[in-house]
Amino acid sequence: MNALAPPDRAALQLHLAAPDFRCGQIEGRWRLSRVEWPYVVIVISAAPRSNAPEEYAFRFRCDGYPITPVTGQPWDEATNQPLASHRWPGGHQVVPSVFRPDWMGGICLYLPADRQSIVGHENWRTEYPYRLWQPARGILCYIEQVHDLLHSTDYMGTRGAEAATSMAPPPLRAGHG
């Protein structure tokens, strides 16, 4: 007898099978690596940069999905551990303000869609309404934002590759971090 999946896991499975998610996979924007409930690892492509990977893995905590937002952490697929901070995506302004290993010990990204980062940032609800978690879109609203950042002109490759020329990353917006 097969046990039914809990509602949060069933909702995630529906979103991972939805046309918008599948289209992103077919287009090479992201791929599902594995599900180890309540975590899912999704690998997101990055724009070509010198000494940088073609993609980054992120482990998302999904319990309470989709009502509770996910939280995403850069992940090392080979070791199945958090990605070392010098291997996180880096850039000039926006990218380092989102990919902050110093923020909450590196357990999440500094994004309004993240369940950990939204706490204490009530101002984001009015300042960044288009970046908030949307239960109807689910994990797609998060990974699309990450994909966009990794394909922006601000993205310069890994932090380690650009560390010699960059200072500490600025906050998302002055006074909000």
How is this structure best summarized?
This protein has 177 residues and is an alpha+beta fold.
CATH architecture: Roll
Q: What low-confidence regions span 5 or more consecutive residues with pLDDT below 50? A: 163-171, 173-177
* Distinct helical segment count: 6
Instruction: Report the radius of gyration as a whole number of Å.
Output: 16 Å
Widest beta sheet: strand line-up: 1-2-3-4-5
Shape: globular
| SSE topology string | HHEEEEEEHHHEH
Percentage of residues in strands: 15-25%
Q: What is the count of β-strands?
A: 7
Number of domains: 1
How does the major sheet shape up?
Answer: 5 strands, antiparallel
What does this structure look like?
The chain is an alpha+beta fold. The protein has a single domain (27-165), classed as Ubiquitin Conjugating Enzyme. It is 25% helix and 20% strand. The protein is built from six helices and seven strands. The chain has helices at residues 7-17, 19-26, 94-98, 124-127, 139-150, 159-162; strands at 30-36, 39-45, 55-61, 71-76, 81-82, 89-91, 155-158. Strands 1-2-3-4-5 form a five-stranded antiparallel sheet. Strand 1 and strand 2 (39-45) form a beta hairpin. The radius of gyration is 16 Å and the shape is globular.
